[in-house]
Amino acid sequence: MKADPQVQEDLLELPLVDRKLAQLTKESATSELKGNATAARAAVVAAEESLVETRTRIKDLEREVARAENDVETVRSRIARDQQTLDSGAATPKQLTDIQHELESLGRRQGELEDVELEIMERMEEAAKGLATAEGLLAESRARAEETAAEWDRRADEIASETVALEGRRADLVAALPADLVALYEKVRDRSGVGAGLLRHGRCGACQLQLSASDLSRIREVAADEVVRCEECGAIMVRTEESGL
Ligand SMILES: [Zn+2]
User: Fold this and answer.
1) Residue 244 predicted with pLDDT over 90
2) pLDDT digits (tens, 9 = 90+) for 21-39
């Protein structure tokens, strides 16, 4: 294939543009900023779940407290009624003995129930502290998610506009270059990743292979408008003054 030496030199911008485009595509997929934003969103979901759990625990404890208070109240009113009977002086001696026994056991029962109530109240206090912590964590994680999302959005916008600009530049280049040269470039690029490179100081700009002295002397003999290709990677090797020929 033949191509004017200047055209071949112009072709060299194409792999540069393609490399930048590939870098942007890779960044889009693997950016740390994107990863941070995803992780921060997951942290918000976890914090929301934890808050819901804490609120449910508190509701359960509130019900337990109400139940315990009710139990204590039942025992207290029973004690008051017994006491009233005692104070009225109307009870028979047999009844008096029974009531006294009952009062003793009711007193023990009241003490036990009050202990239970106290223990639930303590758990309630702990849960209330947990609620404040969970609310704090959720607020923090939401702020962090907003921040990381904004950071990634900013970079994603930059990537998008850089990509559009590079694609525009690429289209201009392709339109200005001979179709057969571009077709060869694309074919090699599909196969080995890089379609063309500058032959620089005897080294292939695409695969970085250092050419042997005999290869270089052979290439030296090739006409300037002939398209030379790397035997290693197949890339179009563009010759300029930098080539070391
Ligand atoms: Zn090569």
Assistant:
1) no
2) 999 999 999 999 999 999 9
Range of the structural domain that residue 12 is part of: 5-22+178-240
Confirm whether 172 is domain-assigned.
no
Domain membership flag for residue 219: yes
pLDDT on residue 157: 98
228-229: strand order across its sheet: 196-199, 236-239, 228-229
Which neighbouring-strand residues pair with 238? 198
Residue 89: band (very low, low, confident or very high) from pLDDT cuts 50, 70, 90? confident
Instruction: Please calculate the CA angle 18-22-27 and round it to the nearest 5 degrees.
Output: 150
9 Cα: distance to centroid of ligand 1 (angstroms): 17
Question: What is the torsional sign of CA 161, 196, 234, 207?
Answer: negative
**Are 147 and 184 part of one and the same domain?**
no
Average pLDDT (203-222) is 95
Q: In 3-state terms, what secondary structure has residue 237?
A: strand
Q: Residue 115 Cα, ligand 1 centroid: separation in angstroms?
A: 84
For residue 81, pLDDT beyond 90: yes
- 162 within domain boundaries: no
> Can you tell me the distance from the alpha carbon of 221 to that of 30, in angstroms, rounded to the nearest whole number?
46
Ligand 1 centroid – CA 231 distance (Å): 7
Count how many domains the chain has: 2
User: What is the CATH classification number for the domain harbouring 149?
Assistant: 1.10.287.1490
Residue 199 alpha carbon to ligand 1 centre in Å: 9
